[in-house]
Amino acid sequence: MATPTPEELDRQLDEFIDKLVEDKDHLPAGELDDAFWKDLERHPFFLKEMPDDGAELHPATEALQALKWDDDDDTPLGNKANKFKEEGNKYYGFKKYRNAIIAYTEGIKQRSTDPTINAVLFCNRATANFYLGNYRSALRDCVFSRKCKPDHLKAFIKGVESCMKLEKYKDAQTWCSAGLTKEKERDERKQQGREKKQKSEQEKVLNAIRQRNIYLQEDPSIDIFNISTNPAGSCVKLKESDQILTFPVVFLYPEYAQTDYIKEFHENTKLIDHLSVIFESRAPWDEEGKYTLDRIGIYYEDHDKHELKMVSSNKTVLEVLQLPGFVVQLGMPSFMIMVPDSPFAKHYSKMYASL
Questions:
Q1: What confidence tens digit (pLDDT) does each residue in 113-132 have?
Q2: Residue 245 in 3-state DSSP?
Q3: Exposure check for the chain: N or C terminus, fewer CB within 10 A?
Q4: Are 104 and 90 in contact, with CB atoms under 8 Å apart?
Q5: How many CB atoms lie within 10 A of CB 152?
Q6: How far apart are CA 348 and CA 231, in angstroms?
């Protein structure tokens, strides 16, 4: 059907009204027959709701539909196909299955280069046909959908349902078996994709660590990204937005065999920032009240000289990790907290050096 221009639509409306007036003149004064009102209600300018599927459409309504599906524009084919898919979905949502089929068909005609869009269009048209009782048409579209995208599982499901309605039980079984096989293959591909992505992200983290001259414990049996084995329940991460590293950090209190874990310690955050929160109130194990923010010292293990070294609490964790001899073990920087010059601190430092 040729697409009418706006001027032609105006002319058709004028002719429609003139015909009503002409027909009206043949009736007794004051009388309008049922045909008059029925014809008036079918005209698109007076429609109160969309016609039911199967109902005869007024010629002017068909003209408007043709205008709607006009393809005389420069929209890319993929976008057109997707537009028709969305239009069909709207009709489908209102159970206007015939109109949905028209929209999906127009989308298919665009011959999009995207196999997924084509698979969805065929499958959606199959579903609309299914609800109209057109089971053979539905089954055919499911076949086409699979040709576009062999692992489109919705096509398998609707294909099975169509076979059951057509009492093709052996075919339904075949569709079920094929669908289960494709689902397994799809799940395996997804898992491989996730593993590949995870490996790529981990390599980015390791590169960022190397670029910052941070040394990790050399042990191939240790997986620094395994959260389940990390007491902090976290692992080193690289934020994509700002390329900042965050580490799980542990503060050790050897005098009382206590620990505090920080799940995400920003590399540019100072040690004092977290410690000030930890020592905001006295710890239950600090019976003597010795461990206060102004009295504690922060130590790290210098693996080169095999001794404990104290660092300023005003240093960022990155600055400390870059100090000579610092080695990150198990992917989690650790710091010892003691009271400097206390009998325990002197004894523990001496004992560590002798190990």
A1: 999 999 999 999 999 999 99
A2: strand
A3: C
A4: no
A5: 24
A6: 24
Q: What is the three-class DSSP state of 50?
A: coil
The class (CATH top level) of 77-185 is mainly alpha
Q: What is the pLDDT of residues 234-289, one digit of tens each?
A: 999 999 888 999 999 999 999 999 999 999 999 999 999 999 999 999 999 999 99
Q: Do domains 77-185 and 227-354 have the same CATH topology?
A: no
What is the C-alpha separation between 82 and 178, in angstroms, rounded? Answer: 28
Main-chain dihedrals φ then ψ at residue 258, nearest 5 degrees: -120, 160
CB 124 within 8 A of CB 92: yes
Domain ranges of the chain: 6-68, 77-185, 227-354
Helix, strand, coil percentages in the chain from 3-state DSSP, rounded to 5: 50, 10, 35
β-sheet bridge partners, residue 259: 252
Taking Cα atoms as reference points, which of 350, 298, 296, 300 lies closest to residue 321?
300
Q: Please tell me the class of the 227-354 domain.
A: alpha beta
Among 119, 118, 85, 117, smallest CA distance to 102 is for 85
Q: Write the CA distances from 156 to 15, 30, 89, 182, integer angstroms.
A: 50, 61, 20, 9
**Eight-class DSSP state of 134:** -
